[in-house]
Specification:
The record marks 118 as: Transition state stabilizer. Its cofactor is Zn(2+). Keywords: Cell wall biogenesis/degradation, Dipeptidase, Hydrolase, Metal-binding, Metalloprotease, Protease, Signal, Zinc. The protein has helices spanning 3-38, 42-46, 91-106, 120-129, 185-200, and strands spanning 54-56, 65-66, 88-90, 110-115, 150-156, 203-206, 209-215. It is α+β, with helices and mostly antiparallel strands. Bound molecules: zinc ion. Zinc ion binds at residues 115, 145, 150, 152, 212.
């Protein structure tokens, strides 16, 4: 073996070792997260992660139900704008959301998610179709969804059935408003349940959409435009 091929062999070996260690530390950190979750040690999960870091809700809880509408064509855009449905949010949003879900669980319900963090490019597509700030935030200003602080949600019961909220998700009309009065007592009660628990856990409601909640003060966070990985 001459010097050149010896050098190349060493270099290849070093690259292989470094790739392997990166991969194993990533797997290890994911495993630690899920082990902590399984033991119910939620404090340990959050340790060492900055409150404004974007994380995947699935790494912190398996108690949510996902129906990510923009990963399908069942949405007002009539097109699949996410490659896959994942719920990324800033860690502080996740913390409050998990707390709210714990309270819903104690009452026999769970949160079902329709949308979480949304890249700014997707916001631009939405604005072209629905340029009405009552329903879609102007991308020039950005939505709290683009900042990782907003969720679109409903509640399901113990049989996985959605509670009647009066309209479907992304129904753009007055019937979807918290202020709309011409609804049954049952619908009013369901909306009030969702709202009261979310408000208790640091979220604010949005008048024209019963499904939309913003984490308090999240409008100060930066807009984001990353795309998550789909495996
Ligand atoms: Zn929303």
């Amino acid at each position: 073996m001459n010097f050149k091929s010896y050098f190349l062999s060493i270099l290849t070996l070093l690259i292989l070792i470094s790739c392997k260690s990166t991969e194993s530390s990533f797997v290890k950190s994911r495993k630690t997260l899920s082990n902590n979750y399984l033991t119910g040690n939620s404090i340990a999960i959050y340790e060492g992660i900055n409150d404004t870091t974007f994380v995947n809700l699935k790494d912190f809880s398996s108690d949510f139900v996902f129906d990510m509408k923009y990963a399908t064509d069942d949405n007002f855009l009539k097109s699949k704008v996410y490659d896959c449905g994942e719920c990324y949010l800033r860690l502080k949003t996740i913390k409050s959301l998990v707390e709210a879900n714990e309270e819903f669980k104690s009452l026999g319900y769970r949160i079902k998610l329709y949308d979480c963090y949304r890249p700014l490019d997707v916001q631009k597509k939405m604005w072209v179709i629905m340029p009405n700030a009552d329903y879609v935030a102007n991308p020039a200003k950005g939505s709290i969804h683009n900042r990782g602080g907003a969720v679109d949600i409903t509640l399901i019961d113990e049989n996985g059935i959605e509670l009647d909220m009066g309209t479907s998700f992304d129904f753009f009309g007055p019937e979807a408003s918290h202020n709309y009065q011409d609804i049954s007592r049952k619908i009013r009660k369901n909306r009030a349940l969702l709202k009261s628990v979310m408000l208790k856990h640091n979220f604010k409601s949005f008048d024209s959409e019963w499904w939309h909640y913003n984490l308090i003060d999240s409008s100060k966070d930066n807009l984001a435009n990353f795309k998550w990985n789909c495996n």
